[in-house]
Amino acid sequence: MTDLIAVLYIVAFALFIYGLMGLTGPRTAVRGNWIAAVGMVIAVVATLLTPGMGNWVLIALGIGIGIVVGVPAARRVKMTAMPQMVALFNGVGGGAVALIAWVEFRTTDGYSAEPRYIAIASLFAALIGSISFWGSLIAFGKLQEILPGRPITLRALQQPLNIVLLLAAVGCAVAVIAGVDAEVLMIVLLLAAAVLGLMVVLPIGGADMPVVISLLNAFTGLSAAAMGLALDNTALIVAGMIVGASGSILTNLMAKAMNRSIPAIVAGGFGGTTAVASGTREERPVRSTTAADTAVQLAYASKVVVVPGYGMAVAQAQHAVREMGQLLESKGISVSYAIHPVAGRMPGHMNVLLAEADVPYEQLKEMDDINSEFPQTDVALVIGANDVTNPAARSDPNSPIYGMPILDVSASRSVIVLKRSMSSGFAGIDNDLFYEPRTSMLFGDAKSSVGEVVEELKNL
Amino acid sequence: MTDLIAVLYIVAFALFIYGLMGLTGPRTAVRGNWIAAVGMVIAVVATLLTPGMGNWVLIALGIGIGIVVGVPAARRVKMTAMPQMVALFNGVGGGAVALIAWVEFRTTDGYSAEPRYIAIASLFAALIGSISFWGSLIAFGKLQEILPGRPITLRALQQPLNIVLLLAAVGCAVAVIAGVDAEVLMIVLLLAAAVLGLMVVLPIGGADMPVVISLLNAFTGLSAAAMGLALDNTALIVAGMIVGASGSILTNLMAKAMNRSIPAIVAGGFGGTTAVASGTREERPVRSTTAADTAVQLAYASKVVVVPGYGMAVAQAQHAVREMGQLLESKGISVSYAIHPVAGRMPGHMNVLLAEADVPYEQLKEMDDINSEFPQTDVALVIGANDVTNPAARSDPNSPIYGMPILDVSASRSVIVLKRSMSSGFAGIDNDLFYEPRTSMLFGDAKSSVGEVVEELKNL
Amino acid sequence: MVETVPLSVGVVRESIPDERRVALVPKLVERLVRRGLRVVVEPGAGAGVLLADELFTAAGAELGDAWHADLVLKVSPPTAEEVARLKAGTVLIGFLKPLSDVEGVAALEEAGVTAFAMESIPRITRAQAMDALSSQSSVAGYRAVLLAAERLTRFFPMLTTAAGTVPPAKVLVLGAGVAGLQALATAKRLGARTTGYDVRPEVADQVRSVGAQWLDLGIEAVGEGGYARELTEQERAEQQRRLTEAITQFDVVVTTALVPGRKAPTLVTAEAVRGMPAGGVVVDLAGESGGNCELTEPGRDVVAHDVTICSPLNLAAEMPGHASELYARNVTELVELLVDAEGRLALDFSDEIVAGACVAGRERGES
Amino acid sequence: MVETVPLSVGVVRESIPDERRVALVPKLVERLVRRGLRVVVEPGAGAGVLLADELFTAAGAELGDAWHADLVLKVSPPTAEEVARLKAGTVLIGFLKPLSDVEGVAALEEAGVTAFAMESIPRITRAQAMDALSSQSSVAGYRAVLLAAERLTRFFPMLTTAAGTVPPAKVLVLGAGVAGLQALATAKRLGARTTGYDVRPEVADQVRSVGAQWLDLGIEAVGEGGYARELTEQERAEQQRRLTEAITQFDVVVTTALVPGRKAPTLVTAEAVRGMPAGGVVVDLAGESGGNCELTEPGRDVVAHDVTICSPLNLAAEMPGHASELYARNVTELVELLVDAEGRLALDFSDEIVAGACVAGRERGES
Amino acid sequence: MLVESLAVLVLAGFVGFTVISKVPNTLHTPLMSGTNAIHGIVLLGGLVVLGLGADGVLNKILLVIAIAFGTINVVGGFLVTDRMLGMFKQRKDRADD
Amino acid sequence: MLVESLAVLVLAGFVGFTVISKVPNTLHTPLMSGTNAIHGIVLLGGLVVLGLGADGVLNKILLVIAIAFGTINVVGGFLVTDRMLGMFKQRKDRADD
Ligand SMILES: NC(=O)c1ccc[n+]([C@@H]2O[C@H](COP(=O)([O-])OP(=O)(O)OC[C@H]3O[C@@H](n4cnc5c(N)ncnc54)[C@H](OP(=O)(O)O)[C@@H]3O)[C@@H](O)[C@H]2O)c1
Ligand SMILES: NC(=O)c1ccc[n+]([C@@H]2O[C@H](COP(=O)([O-])OP(=O)(O)OC[C@H]3O[C@@H](n4cnc5c(N)ncnc54)[C@H](OP(=O)(O)O)[C@@H]3O)[C@@H](O)[C@H]2O)c1
Ligand SMILES: NC(=O)c1ccc[n+]([C@@H]2O[C@H](COP(=O)([O-])OP(=O)(O)OC[C@H]3O[C@@H](n4cnc5c(N)ncnc54)[C@H](O)[C@@H]3O)[C@@H](O)[C@H]2O)c1
Ligand SMILES: NC(=O)c1ccc[n+]([C@@H]2O[C@H](COP(=O)([O-])OP(=O)(O)OC[C@H]3O[C@@H](n4cnc5c(N)ncnc54)[C@H](O)[C@@H]3O)[C@@H](O)[C@H]2O)c1
């Protein structure tokens, strides 16, 4: 029987790994998720097969409660509320670890008969689990707007208090490891960790929350691995450690994508100065995106309209644009180019460039023809154009460009704008398009940006 | 002490993994190799620290002999003889496994007191180790031309004999596992495996040898892992298994790159039909290459000359060629384009295309200017040109193109020709350039081939 | 003015020799007719563009006396006889050279005509569709390069052939406005190596955006606060010296440098021409304003120092088909601005375009 | 023949009007002088190319009576007076129209001249550097498109502007030899949509290799064994019908279809021209052999059915600079083949190039 | 014992590191959610400790809660991830048409 | 015990698989040679068995040979690999200039 369990465990975590690999690619993600879920079922079944298992009623009760609570919660949550749901699920995972560690402490009389590394692992799990649980609850509260999204901080007190709490928790742990087996130590440890979790997450602004959730997720993984060491359960070690490792990488990727650094975010939790960055953006937030994301969005569109402008000419990006167009077409995506009558700086500027790059004439669409197609367009890719897409030309009679017909890109499902900065075009005016919720900005020289998108497309 | 050893082992195999990762990229390969070597030193030191180690003299003797034999062999071997050297080193590794298993058998009285899985692992190690040892010796002999390179086979007898040998070896193993502990069984097992190793490799032709060596290498890794299981040595398990897994992937990659399938090659060893393919190429062998290889060669050149011809025009590959040129330049490589007066099908054909793709005029070199530069050129990249590079124009007075000045590409250190097939150009004659030892062919439509090279270059 | 009868729009036949354009083409006749206007076309108006009268009538126009229409559309400025044919109260639209042909405009004023000059439409974004200067400059820039290629005794593109290698022609464009940029783009297309220059340094990026190099004369004209400062006399001389030196490197020079209402600046000196390779070509698009080249004789081809200097006066008219189409679209947009929803004339002089374009008879229009 | 005195090579002045080319340019004078030859240039020989006599003398030539040189280089076939100026025993090199101008060749023979026709050089690989037909056809193909762009009343490239969108011109090239391919490439550069056609189906790939489409008339002419078979009368008619239909889709048609020594095939019928858009252009490069267009009047511009049909007879001469340079290189290669290492005339008639190119006085040459 | 546990730890870490290399931004959140579901594996810890006999009411209550928590983590995690991946499913359907 | 050994085996296998993904052909042989050197780790087996006491002359001889073999495999393997990588070293030197 133990051999069977061993094999089932191996199969289970092999499926986790395989599933995770799948989750990193758009084509395989859905399947990857279910493969990992199958792995989980196998792991649970294997555990239940352990010789000498009992307490079946309570086990069934626990699992039952979990299902009754978890399934509807996951089913009903709105798409927009997903991140806080993940925070919550992560939190309860951490809570479970903390609780198990506590029971472990109680049933072993403070690890009196266990090797020291088991005590260390178990207490580590308790500490991290508790922080994760309470920290995640705060994250949930902030995102769900139960708590205010802005940073809540104790100012100067923040940092000393956090340090005191950390020292208290670690102190209790050291005492236990040293052999003191009063349960109060464990309870103080759990409480101190809990308050620490609250205090660290409260000062972090809503914009940084996803990164924090991911970080807590990685921590929970580590705590699970520690618990696995303590319980000598290989499945826990492997799965926990994989989550710990992949979670940290992922946190890093996410922080990079948001132009934030993890130390800065965490420092915020410890009373450092971080909140400013998220503050200034508030009034006119701009969503910036990456070449990889642009590539995914393009690859999963069925209709893409490229809107070239003066910036494409300055960057001399026409050849790269053409290559991108061809790549998309080879994936069965319809691609056209919307040529505004005054795009660029001379009549026919875009034509000259696109002809040079050998874009077929059939794909060049005049403004009047293409404007009716934007509502069916999945992605409008604005490459170095600005004024010719500016809605002020329609809405603002005081604008210098009022009355000019414009390309109606904002009617499409999603708009991606490639330019180097937020600076204005020929007419020298701001463009509201860039601040619309469906718009995201891919900053950089048009030629290099398009080049990167092409590369990403090839890797998809 | 055991804790220290444990940690050292972990460090060692972490270094192996890290080193292997490095070995997969041209930039990091050299360092990767030395990192893995450091890991090995740490593993050896850790082992020597094991409490209760003795027999120091003998250990020193063994290691001493190994160094005295191995270092000069590795130092002196000619670059062209590298593959057989690898075969030899792989073989002795396999031999070591087989010997250790044999001793293990002797010291445990046929595993009488050990759990069954230890016996299984040890016998598996013995079997594979012995096959690897003898098989590698044959591979060495063939490549070193001590044995004839052509397939040596017993025809119809081959397959039955192999099967008998395999059954004999496995039979002995089963008997031992079942409890029979006569040493003769072990010896028969080792001998049967040895003959099997010989018989399987002998019928394989010289061209397939690298793949076979890689396969034997993977097998040796597996045998080391099995030995690790038997000796309960984690370092062996990890390192052996990593080699086993990565070795199989690598074998697969190598076979693909050579347009061969592993089953077909192995089938040859078991008396199947495979030898034909390597036979027909003999008289006028052509080296075909891949986009990845072309990319590496280009990326590590300092001077590249592109020789465009009619094929580039037909494929309309000019934009892709230009992109490749730019990429290479951004890596600090000098790129020029050698324009033959009659390349293409009309005067100035190449100029029109390259100007369309915006290749700077400065990079276009006339024939007389560039011919003196070929001897300093690392790679001449011939893209769809044929007649204009044909040495027959100089050497063969009967050729229809005799007397035409040609681009002297064969003076460069390496020539890569991109065309779809071996078929001839406008003049309808064969081109000796394609068969020269320094020439390799990248078959396929010029546009897609260049596209692939570009992609590979970006990944370097 | 006219209340019940629909407003009539007259399309007249151009009388100046070599003016092959026409102010309206059938496609746009249709559009005006749909707006409720009557379009009267003088027979033969489209002859220069090879547009037969039937094509106009098929589009909804009538043939007749276009000069007596309420709104008369022209391309070139009217001659004295033509002004005489206009009845008082007529609204005239066309190129009227308001800055240089002061008498012509005065004559119109005298004749009681309300005149809108296409040149005077303010170059604001909203007026881009009426910007006939741009559309005709585009044509001129393109044609200037064709003309240069025609006259040059050499190839524009580089060609490597069995009979030797031909280097690409070097083309310099002075003045990178609409015509200049179009010329740069066209020359690049034909395979030449192109370079552009302008006094406005901010145009450098635009020059590069058509694949050309920017000719940097190395004179910094940036003063305090980033504003351009007036060049000293010495600097100006130094600039001219360097330009002259630069010009000698080029096979073809196309000049388009204009300063509205003033004599065109002299950029290509006789000395520069002497330095150019034999067989070279200068195309001077500023001929009408005196020319950018010292040796220019407006409207004529001159060969001096083995260099051909062309100064076509009305290059757009040499490609009447598209020139007319684009011009007709510009004019139509203006007409639509002058007419209300019911097709009645409604001159709203509070509109900066209407006010800016009106060069004669504004009071009458306002009445 | 001449033993001690170096061989003299004469560069004469072309007398035919409009022939602006010259048979040798200074760069190649140098090369011949280095080979030990004496080059004698008739004063004013380079005038058409704007090459002053001093440039020739600077390169090592002497001015003098070029007609009495041992080897006389020309571009166009000599007129009767010119033949009279040649002394017996002279070697003449130039375009001599050996297939069409039978009398001219006979006159040379009579005058005791050994004549090499550039047209007759076999088109083998080794002779590519002497292939003046190719080099001059390249020039002609390029110029034909410039001419068409000049004459067309429309833009070649597509332009989307504030005043409307201009579609790209459609250009059809019939006959995809050297001139045809160059024409296709040039028109593509200028932004036109290009299509090519030829009777030889294997040219389809070459047409595509310059970015043009292949006009498939849908008539299979592949017979047994992959050889082209003669078309039946009916098929030929069908082919002509489809071609006529196709031509009406194009703004510009450039024809270059020649069959050596025969009348050029008629490809563009009057009916096809009638179907073309008004303002269209036909450039017929086959004018000299009768023209590919029914309405062609060789050497003149005709306007029929609102389409301009040009048939320039000597297009290469209109770009004399590079045309002369390329031709001079071709001629020089041939001269070098006719001269031995010591700079003496050595006609080796066992060489297929020498034998093929010689159209008159072979016996004399062999003596 | 310890060697092997450590080895497992380190190797699992390596696997975790190498599995995540380049992930498009769009997949960051689903991936986070997926890994989150996987650490619900702590459920196993609860099962083992409770199943192999934990005495005392408090212990039992705590463990039932822990198991419930773990189950929520697992079940909710996988379901939410799947919903997030809706966009990519759509495409698959389309491709299947 | 067995679970952990198996876990190590499987995880190591996974690591081996993921480490090798796309290798340019030029690196195939060096990579093969490098992995070859690593399986020289069997040397450790010889050391343990001999060091922790193997009796009998034959056993000792066999083990000395095994150790010698293992050492050759390791030392030769790494050295040969390094030499094969000469091409890539050259470039590094150049870049350092
Ligand atoms: N077509 C004509 O005939 C003509 C003539 C004269 C004036 N205009 C006017 O020009 C304007 C044309 O509109 P448009 O949308 O084409 O251009 P635009 O409004 O001038 O905007 C161009 C944008 O491209 C970006 N850009 C510049 N260089 C870039 C690079 N290397 N990579 C990426 N982005 C780059 C700039 O933003 P960053 O700096 O942030 O990158 C800029 O906002 C209109 O206002 C029109 O009225 C047209
Ligand atoms: N320039 C002129 O004026 C002129 C005029 C007439 C004739 N010629 C003659 O043409 C020849 C020119 O020499 P060249 O070296 O440029 O061309 P070439 O000798 O004709 O060779 C072209 C090669 O390109 C390959 N190719 C064709 N399509 C391809 C594609 N899509 N992708 C990749 N490769 C492709 C073909 O091989 P695969 O089929 O195996 O791919 C062919 O061998 C000379 O013999 C010259 O004398 C020149
Ligand atoms: N608002 C709009 O949308 C709009 C529409 C059309 C044109 N424009 C802009 O107006 C500008 C003028 O266009 P244009 O073609 O009518 O100009 P233009 O024909 O009046 O002049 C041509 C060019 O000559 C240059 N020039 C003058 N003196 C010079 C000298 N001494 N040396 C060198 N160059 C000299 C000018 O700077 C100008 O660029 C352009 O930059 C164009 O982008 C804007
Ligand atoms: N050996 C060499 O290296 C070399 C050198 C130069 C040219 N060539 C080849 O020789 C060929 C002829 O070149 P050219 O330019 O001197 O030819 P050309 O001027 O004699 O004829 C022009 C073209 O017209 C075509 N044509 C004839 N009758 C036609 C008809 N009824 N309809 C349509 N097309 C018709 C011909 O096929 C030819 O392609 C070319 O294909 C060229 O590639 C080879």
TrEMBL record, chains A, B:
Ranges for domain NADP transhydrogenase beta-like come to 6-455
Return any one Pfam family short name: PNTB
EC numbers listed for it are: 7.1.1.1
Q: Where are the transmembrane segments?
A: 6-25, 32-50, 56-74, 86-105, 117-140, 161-178, 184-204, 211-230, 236-255
Supply one GO molecular-function term. Answer: NADP binding
The UniProt entry's GO CC annotations, sorted and at most eight, read: plasma membrane
Where, per UniProt, does this protein localize? Cell inner membrane
InterPro entries, alphabetized: DHS-like_NAD/FAD-binding_dom, NADH_DH_b, PNTB-like
State the Gene3D superfamilies in the record.
TPP-binding domain
Q: What class of enzyme is it?
A: translocase
Q: Which UniProt keywords apply?
A: Cell inner membrane, Cell membrane, Membrane, NAD, NADP, Translocase, Transmembrane, Transmembrane helix
Its catalytic activity?
Answer: NAD(+) + NADPH + H(+)(in) = NADH + NADP(+) + H(+)(out)
UniProt keyword Cell membrane present: yes
Its membrane topology: Multi-pass membrane protein
Purpose: The transhydrogenation between NADH and NADP is coupled to respiration and ATP hydrolysis and functions as a proton pump across the membrane.
Q: Which family does it belong to?
A: Belongs to the PNT beta subunit family.
Name listed for the protein in its UniProt record = NAD(P) transhydrogenase subunit beta
Q: Which organism is it from?
A: Amycolatopsis bartoniae
TrEMBL record, chains C, D:
On the tree of life, the source organism's domain of life is Bacteria
- Key words, A-Z: NAD, NADP, Nucleotide-binding, Translocase
EC class of the enzyme, as a word: translocase
**The Alanine dehydrogenase/pyridine nucleotide transhydrogenase NAD(H)-binding domain, residue ranges:** 149-311
Q: Which GO terms describe its cellular component?
A: plasma membrane
Q: A single Gene Ontology molecular function, please?
A: proton-translocating NAD(P)+ transhydrogenase activity
| UniProt EC number | 7.1.1.1
List, for all copies, the residue spans of the domain called Alanine dehydrogenase/pyridine nucleotide transhydrogenase N-terminal.
Answer: 10-140
| Catalytic activity annotation | NAD(+) + NADPH + H(+)(in) = NADH + NADP(+) + H(+)(out)
A GO biological process this protein is involved in?
A: NADPH regeneration
- Record's Pfam families? AlaDh_PNT_C, AlaDh_PNT_N
PANTHER family for the chain = NAD(P) TRANSHYDROGENASE (PTHR10160), PROTON-TRANSLOCATING NAD(P)(+) TRANSHYDROGENASE (PTHR10160:SF19)
State the protein's purpose. The transhydrogenation between NADH and NADP is coupled to respiration and ATP hydrolysis and functions as a proton pump across the membrane.
Q: What is this protein called?
A: NAD(P) transhydrogenase subunit alpha part 1
Q: Which gene encodes it?
A: pntA
UniProtKB/TrEMBL annotation, chains E, F:
Grouped into one coarse class, the protein's main location is membrane
- A single Gene Ontology molecular function, please? proton-translocating NAD(P)+ transhydrogenase activity
Superkingdom of source? Bacteria
Q: Could you tell me the keywords of this UniProt record?
A: Cell inner membrane, Cell membrane, Membrane, NAD, NADP, Translocase, Transmembrane, Transmembrane helix
Any idea where the NAD(P) transhydrogenase alpha subunit C-terminal domain is?
6-89
List localization entries.
Cell inner membrane
Q: Which reaction does it catalyse?
A: NAD(+) + NADPH + H(+)(in) = NADH + NADP(+) + H(+)(out)
Q: Which GO terms describe its cellular component?
A: plasma membrane
User: What is the protein's known function?
Assistant: The transhydrogenation between NADH and NADP is coupled to respiration and ATP hydrolysis and functions as a proton pump across the membrane.
Name this protein carries in UniProt? proton-translocating NAD(P)(+) transhydrogenase
Q: Which organism is it from?
A: Amycolatopsis bartoniae
